[in-house]
Amino acid sequence: MPPHTHPSGGTGPPPVSTTSHLVRPVFLGVVCFLAALLPPALPCPPPCLCSSDNLVVDCGGRGLSSLPPMHLLPRGSRSLLLANNRLASLGAAAFANLSSLEELDLSNNYLNNLPAGLFRDMSNLTRLTLHNNSLTVMDRDLFQGLDSLQTLDLSLNGLSTVPLGVLDELQRLRWLSLAGNRLHGLERAAFEPLANLQHLELGHNPWECDCNLRDFKHWMEWLLYRGGKVDAVECTLPKDLRGRDIRGVPVEMFNYCLQLEDENGGGGEGTRSGQGAGPPCSRSALNPSGATPVSANSNTGADSSSNSGGGGGGEAPPDCVRARYKPVSVRRAIGTVVIAGVVCGIVCIMMVAAAAYGCIYASLMAKYQRELKKRQPLMGDGDGDGEDREEKQISSVA
To answer: Name one GO biological process term (predicted).
Structure first.
């Protein structure tokens, strides 16, 4: 049967060319070939949002009470944002095999206890934010493996102490915030490994300006000397130092520390002042004989109570404080300063009085000399009359 054709003058559709039937399969083939060449789309853990290049994974503000599936995290991600959620706890392997991450934001959650070695696999992490959580304690190995960390934000938590060793591996750290916690005092040895630290925030803490901060005060002065920045550390205790910045308080003004040592007999156990000078004792080797050196500049030892501690972080700090800061020596220093001030005051008063007397005497002598010069001609005439009278008397006698 011949194909149906329209007459030349008809109004029906034009005849379909045979080439159009060949173009469509070729076009579909090219599209399929290009799709095969493109890399498959990487998954993004729900309910997070991933950037177009999959470098930033934003899981913030999603009301999460547990972590999203980390195995779905795109390979090569640089930033993981988990802020403004309801995270209260994390497993020890929560961030395992995430060595590509450079930023981790866990701020504004309810985290109250982080396991040791939580960030062990994050060797490239440079920024860690734990702002506004419920952290009250930190395990010594919490930041283990963070060799590249440069920024650490621990502000607005409930930390009452920074344990020795927790910051030892953060030798590249440049910015640290401990503001808005419950810190009363800090130990110098906990911060000495931070050789590259340039900015330290310590404000809004209930600081007690006694022996707890004496050594740390010296370390802050060293940090400022090498160009670092530290915000104001205002004292809350004792009352006579309340509101003052500890950096401007002289060493002799730590009266509250002296009172504590007096109450404990200068060597009783349980003194709170022992926390301040403990770090030097922990860094130095314990004296095998158990005796405590008297010199403040020598490596301090420990007595029998510190020997039981063994590691330099237990019972050793109170012994170091008792060895280094003795009320008698400090009283003598204060007495010497007072006596020297009184003597200097008396000497100054005497010098002022002597200067005033010299000025008055000089002015009187100058006035006397002027009057003497004015009267000198008259005195000369009087002397001549006297000589004539004497000559006359001699001639009359003769």
So the answer is: potassium ion transmembrane transport
Helix (H) / strand (E) element for 56: namely strand 56-58
Q: How does residue 247 score in pLDDT terms, banded at 50, 70 and 90?
A: confident
The pair of three-digit structure tokens given for residue 30, joined into one six-digit string: 């090219």
The position carrying tokens 């000495």 is 192
Q: Tell me: the pLDDT tens digits for 74-91?
A: 989 999 999 999 999 999
Q: What is the pLDDT of residue 171?
A: 93
Residue 159 pLDDT greater than 50, yes or no: yes
Instruction: Supply the pTM of this predicted model.
Output: 0.58
Q: Supply 96's token pair.
A: 């395992």
- 43-50 long-range contacts, Cβ below 8 Å, gap at least 24? 43/72, 43/74, 44/72, 44/74, 45/69, 45/70, 45/72, 45/73, 46/72, 50/74, 50/77
Give, for 225, the enclosing helix (H) or strand (E). Answer: helix 211-225
Quick check: 119 and 144 in contact, CB under 8 A?
yes
Residues 150/151/152/153 CA torsion (nearest 10 deg): 180
- DSSP letters spanning 107-153: -SS------TTTTTT-TT--EEE--SS------TTTTTT-TT--EEE
